[in-house]
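Researcher: Last one for today. Full complex below.
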Amino acid sequence: MLQFPAWKVLLVLAVLAWGVVMSLPNAVNMSGAPDWVPKKAVNLGLDLRGGVYLEMEIRPQDVIGGRLEVFARDVRTALARTDTQDPVAHLAEVNGRTMTIKLTRADASGNFPVADAIARIEKVNGPVEGGLAGGKTFDVARAGPDTIAITVPANSENLMMADALAKTETIVRRRIDPDGVAEISITRSGSNRLILEAPGEPDPQRLKDLLSRDGRMTFNIVDDSASSIAAAQAGVVKPGFRLISGPTTGPLLIRSIPEIVGSDIASASQGNDEANRPQINFRLNSNGARKFFETTRSNTNKRFAIVLDDSIMSAPSINEPIPGGNVRITGDFTIEEAQDLAAIISAGEMPAKVQFLDQRVVSSTLGEDSIRSGYLAAVVGLALVGCFMILAYGAQGVFAVASLAMNIVLIFASLTLLNATLTLPGIAGIILTIGMAVDANVLVFERIREEQRNGRSIWTAVQAGYERALITILDSNITTLFAAGILYALGSGPVKGFAVTLALGIITSVFTAFIFTRMLTVFWMKIAKPKRFAI
Amino acid sequence: MLIKFWPAETKIPFMRYRYVGVTLSILMIIGSFFLLATRGLNLGVDFAGGSVIELTESETVTVSEVRSKIGNGLTVNSATDTDGTRRIVIRFGDLDESLLGPEFAALSPEEKVERASSASNTFVVNEIKSTFNLTDQDILRNDSVGPKVSGELFREGMIALGVATVMMLLYIAFRYSWSYAIGGVAALAHDAIGTMGLFALLQIEFDLTTVAALLTIIGYSINDSVVVFDRIREVRRKYKQMPSNEVIDIATNQTLSRTFLTAGTTLIAILAITIFGGPVLQGMSIAMIWGIFIGTYSSIFFASAIVMALGTDIRRPGVPDDTPGFQGAS
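Model: Here's the assembly. Have a good evening.
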């Protein structure tokens, strides 16, 4: 217990030196230091630096509904195109998690060709994506003499959710941070949730607006003939057309089937027009550029509408065929609006609408206040505990205070090493550790006092004190460590932040209080050669 | 000359008074349950759902101005920061549907339930910004928690608590014996229930931060109990024929000065949080001060009394009486 060979001393000193170097950037600006010196400070949580925390989810019914809508197009093609038979006339409707197909034309004997229709649908019903066990993406079953029900089996649903969540995560990142420079964090939680943390962002509404758009972008040809518009406004829309409007264009009649869709767009960015007003520039990919050239060639002197989420953004005239695939939208945008719209367009379409569950916003002023009060509380706490220990144990108390200071240094160093985030409850955890870390010292010192009272000499008393206290220290700290571990694993938000510092504090305090203080005590006894502890 | 915070050798017959202690504990537990049933916990937004918005108080933006101009269904209070600046704290649940606009009215009933807190939050924030001519930077804090998340957070917290308790029970049973495990966990439950009772009595806001405090109290309580248990085990090994009450009394007296010193230093650290840590940590630190007292008390009277009733023997099948423990490690 009291032997400290050179390697042990060196090891302890190395750990402490590592702690000092790792935690120094938290106290001093290290930008002038040489390259090998770590410069990373501890990550501060949103409650300390200010910013927006948003928790959102995509709902399974929306994801599945969306997938069924897409499948409905394949079904329509499958039932329409055939070499030997007439098309199967039908109506398809998606309602929540089920698509119902109702056949509308019976044969001569009054039967509907359900079996034939199912066989044709099964041909376009591919295997589950990414599923190794095989199985079809959709369940297709007869649901009546003229009805077919298409549903999604459970394993297929899970894969669809995983895929939709991954896509949503990418789109969320691209929309909020199109340049990939901001320090945002997006984490998945459960099967359908995302947690977004954006430090420094003051406005949750802007983020929510950016994320709640579907981002469905299409180019549709406009029908400008006066008679069609008059008929549509009277309530009779031509088949194959839709009447929608936009803030600058008013209501327009557009073809339902788009010429260009979101997947044809390569990128979008904010630029400026000739009068230096913000505009949105886009570039189509090669497939999109070709389609756009064809469309503009066959529709010269018509207008096309650029539609985002069922609202017309712009409806320019086609004066001549446009090659190259570069398109721009001019309009009455502010720079921020143009940037946000460009980010939405280039990020692509959300697989399902995002629902916001939970929002927390902390201003940076409040964050600074919290850091200041947390720091003050820590310094005052440490100073008072230090005075108390020195008053109670003299020289031993000084060693305890030294190890307490090293303990805090090591907590910060390990927080930096683990890339953990320090939150306000985390600071409370550290302050609590200051109080509890001395417990290990107190246990040892009290034990030494007791052994001295039982008539032992100073060396044997110290030896016995450390030996006997070790079991107690380990038992009590391991029990608390269990609690901290469970809190980390199962808790969320502030509970987790608290658990991290508490757990690290327990480990570092056992090291500093039991090994570092002991080493100091042994050296002091060798140098000062006291007969007894003044206890 | 060092200050003696506690006399070196005491001979207090704790176990003679154990019935008094246990009676007090049971009364406190009954009282806590009564308070929890009648007054209930003052659930914060984390668990109840709804919104909290904080603003800096100024000459034009005051508590009474916010009350009179924003009004409807909001609870408006003030809080003082450590540096003396005053803040306005506005709390509210779901507002009346008529305020939330046509877009909200068009939603389906389930969607209304899910979105009401977020829509109410947006409405109030916009009202505040336009009424007082404020920007986003003037809003110090704006939390809004939907009904789905608040329920989950509560469940999650309770599960974490339950699992942590079982783990500690098993560890103590492994290191000591079942009677110690039951005593330690009973003391822990005693402290947790007593603290919840205090929350109900004082109507301290119960949120995720206070849950962290509750968990700290549990950690402290078990830590304190284990230190006493450890000494009981040691005394028991030394005096195999001594009656349990004497064993426990000796152990408790021997650890008494450590108990008070550790409680003292921890209290000092927590007092520093209470005084300087700002309003966010205040509820948490009040709970922890109470927790130190109750945790210390329960280790001596409640945990030890239960161990005494169940037996101080540490013999377990297959394990020799003098298990060496961790002595090999260093």
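The first strand of chain A starts at residue 43 and ends at 44. The domain at 61-158 of chain A is CATH 3.30.1360 (Gyrase A; domain 2).
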